[in-house]
Design brief:
18% of the residues lie in helices and 21% in strands. By secondary structure, it is an alpha/beta fold. Helix 5 packs parallel to helix 6.
């Protein structure tokens, strides 16, 4: 699989991704078309997010973040995972380090002065990271793709694995084209004995009001010999999970979106009940809820995703891993972890500058 070096496709240009089954005209789309949302409903969501934010969407106190040192990383065995926040994971495989959806910015926003602000600092600073073998990106939304983080990693990271079109953004931002590998759904690439496969997701893309769905979105399967890890990225619930499980499962652990959901946008984010069902569809063993605990991106209480998925997993006898930010998780032998989110109180959040982006 080689990097595609064209610029981000425009309707006035020949489309280098037109052969993709996910490409329709000059945009990518899901197999099941996303329902059309009226302008009135969109404006209503924005109004509620700005002026009717419910209570308890942010913690009042400091979250129990476990700092990570380079010495700890070097001493950690292979198949170690460290959650750095939201959907950012640092994974050690075969002596090398991989990052998923790295966001070290203070805000998940195109602006430094407004937008969803972090609940906590990353367990280690960007400049403290070890050399990164590869970055794995699920899509181009601001809470998953941070331009400043990419700019810092551009020279020190060997590889960037992206869905179609997302890599073009990285190249435009200064990442060497030879480092960028863009994959369509079901494409795989083998690196250092690992096999990475871009798999379907039900979501959307875009970083401005004018570039919607010009890049693809994906989930990922990471295979290290017999070890199978699923990374959901962002997604609504769809029948593709069962197909992924049948083709590439079963999975030792699934890193599953559990947060930023709402009844007003059911197509692009999963309710906790759907997260658990998707894990079952994938033939997963351990479930680790991600996409929570870092940014205020929805209308639910910040701890709610943890509490709901904890109860649902218990009902279905699904082992749930909930490491603190910065705590090491052994992918080969996960453990449940503490209910760390219960140690932080919540508060009504009224700061206009932290209103959520519509993800």
């Amino acid at each position: 699989m080689f990097a595609r070096r064209s610029k981000l496709p425009r309707s006035s240009m020949a489309d280098p991704y037109q052969a993709s089954p996910q490409r329709h005209g000059d945009r990518f789309q899901n197999p099941a078309q996303r329902p059309v949302q009226s302008l009135g409903k969109t404006l209503g969501i924005i109004w509620n997010a700005l002026f009717h934010k419910p209570a308890q969407t942010r913690p009042t106190g400091s979250l129990p973040v476990q700092a990570i040192t380079r010495a700890q990383l070097d001493a950690a065995p292979d198949r170690s995972l460290f959650r750095l926040g939201h959907s950012t994971m640092l994974i050690k495989l075969r002596g090398a380090y991989w990052l998923t959806d790295p966001v070290f910015a203070e805000r998940a926003s195109p602006f430094r002065w407004m937008g969803p602000k972090r609940f906590h600092q990353p367990p280690m600073a960007l400049h403290e990271l070890p050399p990164i073998r590869g970055v794995i990106l699920s899509h181009d939304h601001y809470d998953h793709l941070d331009r400043d983080t990419i700019a810092y990693l551009a020279d020190t990271t060997d590889l960037f694995l992206t869905p179609l079109g997302v890599g073009d953004r990285l190249i435009e931002w200064g990442v060497a084209a030879a480092k960028v590998h863009q994959l369509d759904w079901w494409d795989s690439i083998e690196i250092d004995g690992l096999r990475m496969t871009a798999t379907p997701a039900q979501h959307f893309s875009g970083r401005t009001p004018f570039d919607g769905n010009r890049t693809l979105w994906a989930s990922w399967v990471i295979a290290d010999a017999e070890l199978r890890v699923f990374f959901s990225g962002d997604t609504g619930y769809f029948d593709g999970f069962k197909t992924i499980g049948e083709r590439l499962g079963p999975f030792d652990i699934t890193l599953m979106e559990t947060g930023a959901y709402d009844a007003q946008w059911p197509y692009v984010h999963m309710q906790p009940e759907q997260t658990v069902q998707a894990h079952i569809d994938l033939e997963g063993r351990w479930l680790m809820p991600i996409h929570n605990g870092t940014f205020d991106l929805a209308m639910h209480a910040w701890q709610e995703p943890f509490e709901r998925v904890l109860a649902l997993a218990a009902e279905r006898s699904i082992p749930l891993a909930t490491p603190r930010m910065g705590e090491r998780l052994d992918l080969a032998a996960p453990r449940a972890g503490e209910r760390w989110w219960q140690n932080a109180e919540a508060v009504t959040h009224t700061e206009w500058g932290s209103a959520p982006l519509l993800k």
